[in-house]
Amino acid sequence: MALTGIQIYKLLPKTNCGECGVPTCLAFAMNLAAGKAELGACPYVSEETKAELADASAPPIRVVEIGTGDRKLKIGGETVLFRHEKTFLNPPGLAVLVTDEMADEEVAGRLERFRTLEYERVGLILRADLVAVKSISGDTGKFEALAARVKDETDGGIILMAEDASVMEAGLKACADRKPLIYAATRDNVDGMAGLAKEHGCPLAVKGDSIDDVSDLTTKLTEDGLKDLVIDSGARTTRKAFEDQIAIRRGAIVKKHRPLGFPTITLPCEMTDDLMQETLIAGMFVAKYGGIIVLSDLQGHSLFPLLVARMNIYTDPQRPMATSPGIYEIGGPKEDSPVLVTCNFSLTYFIVSGEIEASRIPAWLIVVDTEGLSVLTAWAAGKFVGDAVGMSLKKCGIADKVSHKKVIIPGYAAAISGDLEEELGDWEVMVGPRESAHIPPYLREWQV
Fold first, then answer.
1. 64-313 to CATH, choices 3.10.520.10, 3.40.50.150, 3.20.20.20, 3.20.20.30
2. Can you tell me the distance from the alpha carbon of 73 to that of 230, in angstroms, rounded to the nearest whole number?
3. How many Å apart are CA 154 and CA 282, to the nearest integer?
4. Which end of the chain has the smaller Cβ count within 10 Å, N or C?
């Protein structure tokens, strides 16, 4: 049974240190009870208290991990219905489907696209996460061979999809060490699938004919000791699947209904034969509230918008996206190439670096740590000022890479030029254009 905020408070160290992000231990306890904080945020809580508060501090939707190594996927862990209440934590995993009745060429094409379709955006690598391996034939040998092929040819997570426990067992022989998601336990096969999940330590998906059916199955499985579950309500129409996703999230977070406190798996690949319509449905699940989204195929024109939407929705709106500070070489600069300075707000960095590339003038770009703030905002906050920028230029080592002592600052930061010259001593501070679009003509006229 969940503890109240006062009961949790009695078990906390009562230091009121504020290191958890709120000013008092009582406020922290209230957040724990409401599922808006994690116990690990308190640096002074004892191990005994952690054990006692484990259930009370656990998020209403359990965190489930699929896969191993660097490509391990973590889903669930959400504590709110809406992003403005608190940041969404774990982005949904995007999966591509392959079946044991597909031609080798089709399987090869989908796996190749899974490996190669990735995009860099604001310093992040965006790509699909999982390969769903489905048994249609019911042939244990074919399923095992396909699972082994996926394991050998990809490094992503794996979903094994089979209705028969003996077929599933064959697939697990090929890739159990990669900790795949077993899909799915139903009323007809729940005992066999649960046994395999226990034996191999793999997460288990639960599929029902309705939310009530799913609740009954998760209750049975959790009582049997299985905790890492993923749920599929069984809906295969857009409207019903949408309604079920909202009902499951509300049931877990608002009503504290434990049997629904697990991430979900959705299958747009089974809802339509049209790839573009499938992409629209998948986009809906990115926002509301799919934990895993299985696609029939990966195509750049459909995958990229899903990846960008996922990134935007699961980015903390209260923390600007920041680029790592340091020296960035653009176009192979030499010792006589110009040196420019900007902030580490990712959008600013990519716009400025893009304009430098467009100029075809090799240059050094120094990115100053402004805690993700834009130039003007950082200047107003005292983070893009003469002494701070000067210190960054000294520490980054740019003086050892160029034969001149000239640095170009953004036009909107012209006010820092005097302080920066004083900080740098013998460097000449040049005021660049205010608008990034004017960088190319400015650089073409630049001379050492």
1. 3.20.20.20
2. 13
3. 23
4. N
